[in-house]
Amino acid sequence: MNLRSREPLIFKRSVEGKIGMDLPQLDVPPAEDTRPLHLKRKDFGVLPSCSEPEIIRHFTRLSLWNYGMDQGMYPLGSCTMKHNPRLNEVTSALPGFSESHPMASDEHLQGNLELIFTLQEWLKEVTGLHAVTLQPSAGAAGELTGVLLIRAYHLAHGHHKKFILVPDSAHGTNPATAAMAGYDVIDVASGPDGCVSFEDITDSVTGKVKRGFNSVIQEHGADIAGLMITNPNTLGIFESRIGDICSEIHRVGGLVYMDGANMNALVGVARPGDFGIDVMHMNLHKTMSTPHGGGGPGAGPVACVAALEPFLPRPVVVRDTQKIGEGEVPEHRYRWDWNRPQSIGKVHTFFGNYGMLVRALTYCMSHGSDGLREATLRAIVNANYVRSQLVGVYHLPVTSPTMHEVVFNDAIQAKNGVHTLDIAKRLIDYGFHPPTVYFPMVVSGALMIEPTETESKEELDAFIHAMKSIAQEASESPDLVHQAPVTAPLRRLDETTAARKPVLRWLPNSVT
pLDDT tens for residues 210-248? Predict the structure, then answer.
């Protein structure tokens, strides 16, 4: 049976007098409404009145319109949308984890604190860095925490530096993060190989010169607080000169922050601390498979070198080991250490999204070190398999070796008037979620594909077949692609108007 093509808003289904459940009569006086007037909504009357079957059917039908990881491949580049193992959900639901209270005393939280300490040790080993905080609840929060650590370090040494360098191949949140931390941002050009260019780059069309790494270092030198670099970058390419970049930043007294959102291409293969990174975040909701999407909850732990440890958000978990005799099992006690006078302070209520930390440690321990490395290698193999099958069908603007993701664009299809958005919309008709589009912005009409290690060859082949079919349609029947999606519950939306004039809430007289 086909899904209904339209589903009215629940408010439109409302009929006064309908009820979804019967509540017992109050045997106490009604509660007084003590809400301040300025907090009360003036344009909202009552909740919709619907029967129980209507409510259940409404939300069930809407849920069937959604696409998720449990239905198929989710090839969003730089978002690492992978399978969330059900074992993670089982462990996070254990009463000792799910029902613990963050304000309980250390004595009552020994197991919880041990879990935090253990995950920190795993992440220290994975990154090759000295210390970790698990407080940040997302990658962007981790970024800000990392740059605030850099700022605190410089201020503690009496240095008032002005600039953060950000390559144009970095994640889009990096410049915003640096600005929020009080720094001016200087862009650094990428070269034809997709990596940071040490020399200036002249645009062949506009004649505009983009400054390379060397000229920025020479011009600003001692005023550089640090550099934020995504590695692998947003083209899925490993920055092969990362050691030289770190050395130069350190030479002028700066620190290097690495955006670890693409760490799933490095785990078990390369450690950022070994090639000179001072501080970085990791997205556990990407690299370690905790749930991702819909705004969270996530986890973006930050790892750093020893020089930055005093500035980590407080409190931190420490382990005290009781002295023991020879051959005896050591006794550990875990506690929160609040005595951190140089700390940048808290960056999250309580101690982070604890349920995500449980899931992440479950992922690490169920895989083991060998399993984490194998997952990384499979992600790289999958991305390169997709690349090998689609190159020539779609244009590959940068031909350097790619790791966990590959970026094509619409240059071939554009000759027939079919563009990136058309391709993405048509992919919906083939039963796949579209890849990331128009990002990274250093590639015009980008199609950014990341299959992750989750996908089997059969699923990859189905995706590749769909992409090849769309390319053929773009050549033979471009109008069909322009109309896509044609089989989805909703047809193509006016995205320009939605972006410029968004309506984000329901009002009584709004148009459905």
Answer: 999 999 999 999 999 999 999 999 999 999 999 999 999
Q: How many residues does the chain have?
A: 512
Among the listed residues 219, 233, 226, the one whose alpha carbon sits nearest the alpha carbon of residue 190: 233
332 and 348 fall within a common domain: yes
On whether both 341 and 392 belong to a single domain, the answer is no
Rounded to 5 degrees, what angle do the CA atoms 99, 105, 107 make? 95
Residue type, 207: G
CA dist 107 to 220, 350, 500, Å? 51, 17, 53
Which of 323, 339, 365 terminates a domain? The answer is 365
Cis before 301 (ω within 30): no
| pLDDT tens figures, 79-104 | 888 999 999 999 999 999 999 998 99
In this prediction, residues 176-196 reach a mean pLDDT of 96
* 8 A C-beta contact, residue 459 and residue 430: no
Peptide bond into 24 cis (omega under 30): no
Instruction: Report how far residue 440's alpha carbon sits from residue 446's, in angstroms, rounded to the nearest whole number.
Output: 7
Does any domain span residue 473?
Answer: yes
Is omega for the bond preceding 297 within 30 degrees of 0, making it cis?
Answer: yes
